[in-house]
Write a sequence for this structure.
């Protein structure tokens, strides 16, 4: 057990600061985990860096994504490899680069704080809303966009249901032996009525894969909001990822209640925002790390992309075939689908099409509404 | 006094004991297991299939002198399969045998006696101290099941409505494994020590194979470990784990092979590669796989 020596900094203070730095970098090091870490430190040698490293890692981290962040913050905090202001918010390179999301890339000059209070709030006339429903989402003004964002939050796609192995009382088929016998005990062992059970149903898993490459950037903000609405309505059964040049899981960020906050956190987590597209590679990363293990199994998978593939289209086709074998249904959302003269001619789109159950548009609010319907009946 | 889990002085001490029992751990894993024992916290292990998560729980049971109780999770698993169940047929027999003679309240009371309770794995682990409780592949169970576990993991106790609370005389060491097919609820994870188990590096993997298949030649173990390491970087649908390296070496040894060549590798590839698409690809590049 470590006695706190006068010449050493108080380990509780050091660890508290360390946990704060971890939290600022997106590691789930909450106060209860911090208390566990302080406890763990009593059991190891506090002067042995390796033991401190492992004691902190097993208590403060919660998933593989946390591990590289933990390593970086540990290096900075305890080994002083990077300058870090006391109580600082994170590594200099990744200090929560909150990207301006609401307006897309063209909007970068606008101060994100101003966007919370749109200059001229639109009066919600029914006809205005109706017009808005069919406006291309890439061509909205700021005020219209705020209105659309509010409407998207209401879409909240519900997913089709599946039967589970769990049962509930009721139905007319299987006899519920446990409950029947329990009832029978109450009547002194005389056979009473037969009680039945029926399978329970619950929503299928919904997996959203959003292409955030440059060509999709006019729609990225709106689609992230759609993903936020979906994650909020089914936090346990919805997963969201972004594809671009690499795969990023944004489910955790999107679980926050406030959409703007959630989008800012998600935006900070996406390293390849508005970059190139290597759909095949990032889809393969999704299937390797998540999909095949279970996330895509029996799930409704929605892939949002225009199919502009810079990489090998054959690889994309291969991975789409794999996805189709795992998933219950694959829905491809292409924002250009709803426009006049659309034909799925991009190489990526052509390779993927044979493995897609539904190809839908996603360029207007009405189209997103249709998408919610497709998801609900998949 | 009941026997208790063996204590260890330091992570290195525990690592040596694991080593002596045939499980080669690294510093991180030894520290995680050491802290789990010391702090009486569940150990939550994640990692690719076949990296030795389940084997760790088995070895921990051996070296601490505890009984291993294993609970394999699956979708729809519930309290009556994981915690306890009442033995209804025996209760009915008891009731019929007692007839009308006895006092009704007393009869009712005697129905919910401990002897009519069937202990399922979690209750078994609480009652049989010292014990190691392995909750295997918790990601296969659904979230409703995690709620049952919270009470057990926090208090080391099970509350049975008719009987009262059964508390462990000595808390079992709980090892939870997950293959990450879904995210386990944070409330559960927060009670645990979390460790991600990596594939071992080459030298350690050879040592593990030598330990598990001592009859195989050193050269063969090295060749197989090198081939598996190359397979892991070959973008397969299912990269082989340590379990596959061991299986493959064992299969080759059973066939009397002492050096891995293209012919024997092709014949035994099924021990390491488990998907048809992967097999086709690996067979095409078999020469490169063995070369170098």
């Amino acid at each position: 057990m470590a006695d706190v020596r006068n010449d050493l900094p108080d380990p509780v203070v050091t660890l508290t600061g360390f946990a704060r730095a971890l939290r600022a970098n997106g590691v789930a090091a909450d106060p209860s985990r911090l208390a566990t870490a302080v406890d763990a430190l009593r059991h190891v040698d506090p002067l042995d860096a390796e033991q401190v490293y492992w004691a902190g890692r097993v208590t403060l981290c919660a998933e593989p994504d946390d591990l590289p962040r933990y390593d970086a913050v540990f290096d900075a905090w305890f080994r002083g490899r990077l300058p870090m202001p006391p109580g600082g918010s994170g590594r200099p390179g990744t200090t929560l680069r909150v990207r301006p999301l609401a307006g897309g890339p063209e909007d970068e000059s606008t101060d994100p704080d101003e966007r919370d209070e749109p200059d001229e709030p639109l009066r919600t006339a029914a006809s205005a809303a109706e017009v808005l429903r069919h406006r291309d989402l890439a061509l909205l003004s700021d005020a219209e966009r705020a209105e659309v964002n509010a409407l998207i939050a209401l879409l909240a796609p519900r997913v089709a249901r599946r039967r589970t192995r769990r049962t509930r009382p009721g139905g007319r088929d299987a006899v519920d032996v446990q409950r029947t016998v329990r009832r029978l005990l109450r009547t002194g062992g005389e056979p009473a009525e037969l009680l039945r059970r029926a399978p329970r149903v619950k929503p299928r898993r919904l997996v959203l894969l959003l292409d955030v490459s440059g060509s999709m950037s006019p729609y990225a903000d709106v689609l992230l909001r759609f993903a936020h609405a979906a994650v909020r309505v089914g936090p346990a059964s919805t997963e969201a990822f972004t594809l671009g040049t690499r795969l990023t899981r944004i489910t955790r960020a999107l679980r926050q209640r406030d959409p703007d906050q959630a989008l800012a956190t998600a935006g900070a987590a996406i390293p390849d925002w508005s970059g190139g597209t290597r759909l095949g590679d990032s889809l393969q990363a999704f299937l390797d790390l998540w999909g095949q293990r279970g996330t895509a199994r029996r799930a409704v998978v929605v892939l949002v992309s225009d199919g502009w593939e810079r990489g090998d289209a054959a690889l994309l086709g291969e991975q789409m075939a794999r996805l189709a074998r795992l998933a219950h249904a694959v829905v491809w959302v292409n924002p250009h689908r709803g426009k006049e003269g659309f034909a799925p001619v991009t190489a990526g789109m052509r390779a993927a099409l044979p493995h897609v159950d539904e190809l839908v548009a996603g360029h207007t609010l009405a189209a997103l509404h249709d998408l919610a319907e497709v998801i609900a009946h998949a | 006094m009941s026997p208790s889990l063996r204590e260890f002085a330091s992570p290195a001490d525990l690592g040596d004991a694991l080593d002596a029992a045939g499980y080669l751990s690294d510093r991180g894993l030894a520290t995680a297991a050491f802290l789990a024992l010391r702090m009486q916290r569940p150990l939550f292990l994640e990692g690719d299939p076949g990296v030795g998560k389940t084997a760790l729980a088995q070895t921990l049971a051996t070296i601490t002198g505890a009984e291993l109780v294993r609970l394999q999770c699956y979708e729809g698993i519930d309290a009556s399969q994981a915690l306890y169940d009442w033995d209804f047929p025996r209760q009915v027999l008891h009731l019929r045998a007692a007839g009308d003679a006895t006092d009704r309240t007393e009869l009712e009371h005697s129905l919910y006696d401990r002897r009519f309770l069937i202990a399922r794995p979690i209750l078994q682990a609480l009652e049989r101290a010292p014990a190691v409780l392995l909750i295997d592949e918790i990601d296969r169970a659904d979230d409703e099941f995690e709620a049952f576990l919270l009470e057990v993991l926090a208090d080391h106790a099970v509350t049975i409505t008719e009987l009262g609370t059964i508390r462990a005389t000595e808390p079992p060491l709980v090892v939870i494994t997950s293959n990450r097919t879904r995210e386990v609820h944070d409330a559960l994870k927060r009670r645990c020590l979390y460790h991600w188990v990596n594939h071992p590096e080459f030298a350690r993997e050879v040592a593990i194979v030598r330990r598990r298949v001592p009859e195989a030649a050193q050269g063969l173990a090295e060749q197989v470990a090198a081939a598996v390491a190359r397979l892991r970087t070959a973008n397969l649908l299912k990269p082989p784990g340590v379990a596959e390296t061991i299986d493959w070496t064992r299969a080759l040894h059973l066939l009397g092979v002492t050096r891995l060549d293209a012919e024997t590798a092709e014949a035994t590839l099924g021990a390491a590669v488990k998907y048809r698409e992967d097999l086709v690809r690996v067979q095409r590049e078999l020469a490169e796989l063995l070369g170098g």
In short: The first helix of chain A runs from residue 11 to 24.
